[in-house]
Design goal:
Chains A, B: One of its GO terms (biological process) is D-serine biosynthetic process. Chains A, B: GO terms for molecular function: ATP binding; L-serine ammonia-lyase activity; magnesium ion binding; pyridoxal phosphate binding; serine racemase activity; threonine racemase activity. Two copies of one chain form a homodimer. By secondary structure, chain A is an alpha/beta fold. Chain A has 14 helices and ten strands. The first copy, chain A, has a six-stranded mixed beta sheet with strand order 1-2-10-7-8-9. In chain A, helix 2 packs across helix 3 and helix 8 packs parallel to helix 11. Chains A and B meet through strand 1, helix 12 and helix 14 of A and strand 1, helix 12 and helix 14 of B.
Chain lengths: 322, 322
């Protein structure tokens, strides 16, 4: 276990060196996903993080954060709508660590089932209480908090997605990342801008949860209410930025674009029909954005962030897409 | 363009050197697919060839065969229920070559649409007439025949799947390949047995199209009627072996197991739900076999051969799986 990036480092931006250091812990548990040409959608290649063991890129941040824990750590606690909790549970189990996940009561059953299957203990609360409950358990149970995105080790882990994209022969003109809490966009932005400053990093949000676009436009972190953001089907994009991820997006993300619910739903169906990938709505955000705006983006890589979708919803969207 | 393995070589078994030579042509158009852990199914990793640009491993054989054509070749003709025709059309288009595909009238629409989209010309005939029609067009149109499996260059191309599986850190105990015409099993068997003789190569067929199992048991090639083999949902497994692929299977495949239609259908649903992969019924044969028999197979890699499935069927199987 390495040195954790501690409280003193919290507003320091994650560097390429941090991400390269995270890469070895990530390689132990994550798949190195290929880039898949998606000619049906134009000059697009997909980075299918839905194929990770836990169905999402989150395994990378969890692996990096757990690798950086002190040897004496008794266990970890987090809050998550599903993918981060499942990833942390998966990695914690492989290290014999206790893992408690605070889950908003709106989380889809497919995700809560998957979290339980890792051996993690679940605590279900209303969406607005998830962070405070995790904070309380941290103290009462003596656990270490591994938040889903507001942590430099987690961001460094997610950044390995960018490292892998840039390790291909030619740097793309554009990289598309979904934005929820901003951990993936922060890490990918840090990696891409360090290795290929000319490559544009574009974040994608649902129109109904466009708090990051709003924040970048206003020049400071803007928080949307959970009532507002919970309207979108893209459950991974309902969370808001932290000061740390806002600082990364402000430094490394060129632009944030938004897509409608109908565009997200269509993209889920098209990814299954045309690229044979099962994606969750949040995972389809970047493809939806490319179909909407991509003509001027040149060679583009879209991160398909996750694939944990309810089968009934997938079946519905599969039949709706053309 | 390299030297084609000509008629004099037709009963010579494909070697590791042939497969290694095919690898560079394959790398130009195919994705190097990763191995995906599928813990939900035991000690199983998946080789997801459904993620290839044409949705199937067939792009490898097509690339190898077209790379070996003489410079003067005016175009190619083949017979295919879909995936090979699409692959050949895709690679031919990238070389500016004409491509004619003879298609059995039972081919699913998703596959005929995909073949047409590559620019290939389609000729639809009853299933029993596909080989004779392709042979006739070869002479009347002056085209070179690239059969879907009965050709050493095609087999060498498919063998690169085995080369990639064995390039991982540790050789698996078992490799599972679906068997239709036998091109994939021939090539993978040749590669695996050359690189790791102790690794078992197990072919998988539908019970309703078990002509290869029958052939290996009887020690010579047994042909089942199209009426018989066309009963299975796994359309890629309806074809029978050639003398060339029978000779490879006899030399390199340890065993062939069979699965029922219900087991195939369940595996399609499970691959989508648990591994986030859209597979066609033939692509799910190996997973079905692992779920049925895999407890004693040790560390196993299953080739998911393709993913071109009708959306209505996928939606149905997705909801049926648990």
């Amino acid at each position: 276990m390495g040195r954790a990036l501690g409280d003193n480092d919290r507003m320091r931006l994650v560097t390429l060196a941090d991400i390269e250091r995270a890469a070895s812990a990530v390689a132990e548990v994550a798949v190195r996903t290929p880039l898949l040409p998606a000619d049906w959608a134009g000059r697009l290649r997909l980075k299918p993080e839905n194929l990770q063991p836990v169905g999402a890129f989150k395994i990378r941040g969890a692996a990096a954060a757990i690798a950086a824990l002190p040897e004496s750590a008794p266990g970890v606690v987090t809050h998550s709508s599903g993918n981060h909790g499942r990833a942390l549970g998966h990695v914690a189990a492989s290290r014999g660590l206790r893992c408690v996940v605070v889950v908003p009561d709106s989380a889809p059953k497919v995700k809560t089932d998957a979290m339980r299957a890792t051996g993690a203990e679940l605590v279900i609360v209303p969406g607005s209480q998830r962070e405070s409950t995790a904070e309380r358990l941290r103290h009462s149970e003596g656990l270490l908090l591994v938040p889903p995105y507001d942590h430099p080790d987690v961001i460094a882990g997610q950044g390995t997605v960018g490292l892998e994209i840039l390790s291909e022969a030619e740097a793309p003109d554009t990289v598309l990342v979904p934005v929820g809490g901003g951990g993936l966009a922060s890490g990918v932005g840090a990696a891409v801008k360090a290795l290929s400053p000319r490559t544009r990093v574009i974040g994608v949000e649902p129109e109904l949860a466009a708090d990051a676009a709003d924040s970048l436009r206003q020049g400071h972190r803007v928080v949307w209410s959970t009532e507002a953001t919970y309207r979108t089907i893209a459950d991974g994009a309902r969370t808001t930025l932290s000061e740390l991820t806002f600082a990364h997006l402000d430094a490394f993300v060129d632009e944030i674009v938004t897509v409608t619910e109908a565009e997200i739903r269509a993209a889920v169906g098209l990814l299954a029909r045309r690229s044979r990938l099962v994606s969750e709505p949040t995972g389809a955000l970047t493809t939806a954005a490319h179909l909407k705006y991509g003509d001027s983006w040149g060679d583009t890589v879209a991160v398909v962030s996750g694939g944990n979708v309810e089968p009934t919803l997938l079946a519905e969207l599969l039949m709706a897409a053309t």
